[in-house]
Design goal:
21 helices, alpha+beta, Phenylalanyl-tRNA Synthetase, Chain B, domain 3, OB fold (Dihydrolipoamide Acetyltransferase, E2P)
Amino acid sequence: MRIPLSWLREHTQLPAEARAEDLMADLVRVGLEEEDVHRPSDEISGPVVVGEVLEKHPEPQSNGKTINWCQVRVVPEGQTQTLTHEGISPDGIQGVVCGAHNFEVGDKVVVTLPGAVLPGDFRISARKTYGHVSAGMIASVKELGLGDDHDGILVLSTLGLDPEIGADALELLGLRDEAAEINVTPDRGYAFSIRGIAREYSHATGTPFSDPAEAVSVLSPGEAGHEIRLEDEAPIYGVPGCSTFVARKVTGVDVDAPTPPWMASRLRLAGMRPISLPVDISNYVMWELGQPLHFYDAEALRGAVRVRRAEPGERLTTLDEKDRELHAEDLVIADDRGAIGLAGVMGGAATEVGPTTDTLLIESAHFDAVGVGRTRRRHRLPSEASKRNERGVDPRMAAVAAQRAVDLLVGLAGGTDTGEVTVAGEVPTPEPIRFDPSAAQRLTGVEYTREQVVGTLAAVGADVVDDGDVLTVTPPTWRPDITIPEDLVEEVARLVGYDVIGSRLPVAPAGRGLTPGQQRRRQVLSGMAAAGFTETLSYPFLSQESNELFGRAEDTGTALPTVRLANPIAAQLPTLRTTLLPGLLDTLRRNVSRGFHDLALYESGLVFLPGDIHGSPSIPGLGRRPGDEVLASLRAGIPEQPRRIAAAVAGDEPAAELGDSGRRRDWADALDAARTVAELLGLELEVAQGRHGALHPGRTAELRIGGTSVGWAGEVHPKVVEEWDLPARTAVMELDLSALLEAAAEQVTAEPISTFPPTTQDVSLIVAEQTPAEEVRSTLAEGAGELLEHIELFDVYDGAGIEEGRKSLAYALRFRATDRTLTAEEASTARGEAVELAVRRHGAVQR
């Protein structure tokens, strides 16, 4: 929300010397957030004055262009020039070359004299051009930064102005004004108006506030005008789509009348482009009072104006010239031919005010905020009107804003008020709130007096009735966000001052903290970081192709079920992720492209796995709690969202010592990352040969817990590496962290550490080449029995001395007992039993 300071000064006692920064500092004290400062004078400076064209001599040029050699008076006749910059004539008459032709002798124009600086750092000086010394420039709207019109210069009479020669043109056009921009939170819709900001400034500084609504004399309802019908008899969101509709009619409107500079400059500072006088008046009233308006060409209407829900198959061409298919929940404004506007969002093209419009019908209505918000999102149609309507508008402003628009149309556009006032519906009134004044102290810790609480709520605009122990507080109509006692506490804290609330944090009650699941999850993430991995975060939006490639082990020939977004942030990313790997690999690729080649990354996050039911057929209303069956239906449509953890490695691992070239990372590093996660949770992964469409067919492991698959590890398939522009031998792993946390839910009891020495023995077995080394390791561990403390593969050999199709696997076995020192015979017996089981199960031959 941009706040022109000159506009605000009409309703508050903002000091004349105050700048936009001062205003924002005051508004911050009442909870409004500062954003930016808009000051046209930062881009335009120097002598820019009103001049009168004395002479105009057209001079054709050899290039086919005709220029005008002009003499322009820039000081009142009889006075001398006081400016002394080089190129400024002391007699007050400047010779200027001008290429525009839309002016005549006697016209008053804006003259930028030598020394002036225009937007874009365009510096004006006396220079020779077309055979003359042009000492200045007659400015256009675009050159002054007032708009995009560059077809001709700005003739001040077209704005209804006849200023004194030599007057400050910047002051005349409002270019010395400035605006403060603030961020308005969704619950503070009243702050989207000068009226609301002036009231907040009054709260912040204690200065008087002049309500612009009170300056409007509203015509009492008398003769009814255009028929208005409210036909939303079955509200969808618990309240009527339109509670109040005020219609006024003005005839004899000159739609071509110029917008006065004071109005145009304020609208520009507010961030709105002046378009035409009727449109500008509508926007001006909306900015001033916070009530959106819509003007119809009254002669284009057919029959009564109806407020109803859209009919099946109904369409509407809105003012942005887009044809839209309407939804059954859309609240529309309609006449006998059909929909003519989206209520509270945007009007339709069929009844748009045009060059031939003579009679205007003014719509000023109060619409349901929830319905407007849903319509705006459904049609992706943001507007200044919907921004206010969906945050809540003061329902009592409907009649006031309509009257204000009528007064401006009569005063500026030559219109005539017909005196017809049509009011449909009733103004809703806020519900009273029973409030215990001591609640403010209980919730904030500040000792507010009862008088302080009552006075603050009254200052907000609430009607406060003291019933003894409690107060009956009726919020003002412009504060629909105040509905419960806690809202009143917030107002007391906000207006008395957040700075009086202590900053000491309360002591947390004993016995609380992270849940066991949160502790284990944090343990895993910290452990991965300690193992040398860098945590990353990526967006959960993927293409369908990425989900298909990484989201399942094999292509089944049918589409992978995914959750598709109704409004994706990018057309190529329309689905929610079923796997973390695409986002992780995209991060890895981006880092490699920026010169980081040795990477070990990990990410933990949710994935979205839809079931048989996708979403729900409808959203229940907000008026009452949905039944159990409705809630069950809603929950059934929510996709399962397990937590995953994934890692990706590429390049070399850090060198162990200076001069060491390091080791190239591969599938074994990805498998080690998966084992690290399991070990941090006190689990042991079962590793088996696996197949995955995105991974190398011979370097892929399926990871299991208790025989149930919980993830994959391996090198990325060479074709995928090439397509995704990844480093060679990039390796990844992904685990179902939710399943691992569930498996580790039971408390793990640490085994006592034996003080007796270990006994180590090696074994080398020749097995078939396709036999996974992990299966042999598991067999040896099973056969060795309880004396085996650790087993590790330390060599794989398939060279000379090993027949073709076979390989040698060498394992180191460590034995230890908890109650004695093992003898060599006991260790050898356990080793022999392990080898014997491997012989029977895998056909192994001991080397």
